[in-house]
Amino acid sequence: MCENVVGYYRTSSQSNVGTDKDSRKRQKHSVETYTKSNNMNLVKEFYDEGVSGTKEILNRPSFMEMMSYCEDEDISVIVFEDSSRMSRDLVIMETGFQYLTGLGYKLISVSNPDTFIEITPTGTLIRQVLGVISQFEKSNLVEKLRVSRDRKSKLNKSRGKITRKMKGKCEGRKRMTEYYPELTELVVSYRNTMDKKTRKPFSLRKISTLLNEEHNIKVNHNTIKKTLEDVEIMKREERNMKRRIGYEG
Predict the structure, then answer these.
(1) Nearest by Cα to 9 from 43, 60, 49, 61
(2) Which helix (H) or strand (E) holds 100?
(3) 163-195 residue pLDDT tens
(4) What single-letter DSSP state applies at residue 162?
(5) Which helix or strand (DSSP H or E) is residue 243 part of?
(6) Cα(5)–Cα(45) distance, rounded to whole angstroms?
(7) What is the rounded CA–CA span in Å between residue 234 and residue 167?
(8) Which is the most buried residue in 150, 171, 227, 236, by most CB within 10 A?
(9) What is the reported pTM?
(10) CA 21 to the chain's CA centroid
(11) Rounded CA gap, 229 and 187, in Å?
(12) pLDDT 10s digits, 118-142
């Protein structure tokens, strides 16, 4: 008779969540392959998406839903891809293990099935070593991402892609000028054109209307205002750069 089990998946970053992403598919494949080859009946799967590996298990929505389901259905076996799905923090991993085994749960890591089963000095050592490795991998990844962001920030600043705090842009939502490269030039051109009726420069709302009617670019007056502010910031930065070059020379 097949033993009923549940599968648990977790992905930290929202950028790795979605039908076109590999994280859940990979975890699901690993768990399904393992349960089938070990005569287990995978009755339900639970997925914490966008949940950090350093978050305690009792603060994870799907994990708590899974525990309630297991209690109702009298299931005591939880299968997951590897120890990092439980946690990337050694203390959280160990306390979570002690808590769940104390409740009678059996935890199975597909990559190393004995990791959470052997309650012996050797089993504890293996589990904690794997926890340390997982924690190191996370810290290493965070550092690589930081270095990559710094590099991209410097490159984008040299290309004129800056935030309103004068730093190189490397993340966050795209500005409208990134969707429409010609937007800045058009806005400046309209702003420097006199309205024949009022004999004043076109207003922000008028520029917004003209962009929509003549160029099929739909932006509101606030975007026009920010675009003009960015132009002034860039001009000021160029002047400061020339001053610095002249001073250094």
Answers:
(1) 49
(2) helix 90-102
(3) 555 566 555 555 665 566 788 888 888 888 877
(4) B
(5) helix 221-248
(6) 9
(7) 12
(8) 227
(9) 0.49
(10) 12
(11) 11
(12) 555 545 554 555 555 555 555 565 5
